[in-house]
Amino acid sequence: MSKLISCEFNIDTACVELRYADGGSINIYCPGVEDSFDTTLPMRTEMGRLIYNAPLEYARMVLDGTLEGYLRFAPNEHTPDSD
Hints:
With 83 residues, the protein is an alpha+beta fold. It has helices spanning 30-35, 41-53, 55-64, 67-73; strands at 4-10, 15-20, 25-29.
């Protein structure tokens, strides 16, 4: 594929959409990704944070197969301390 020109979450389609300079595109259906493995509430929260705040990072992890491993390790990294 050619150069990536945009990556954003489309709330109307529930997809992270990647657009390329050659006119190609990839749409990642987020509910399908979420349902593809067993997630806990903290994992779903982290996935939502990625989708809205870092869609390119989310897309990269989905496409290279590292999202589930990341979510199993990282759910508590971005939650505020309850002290």
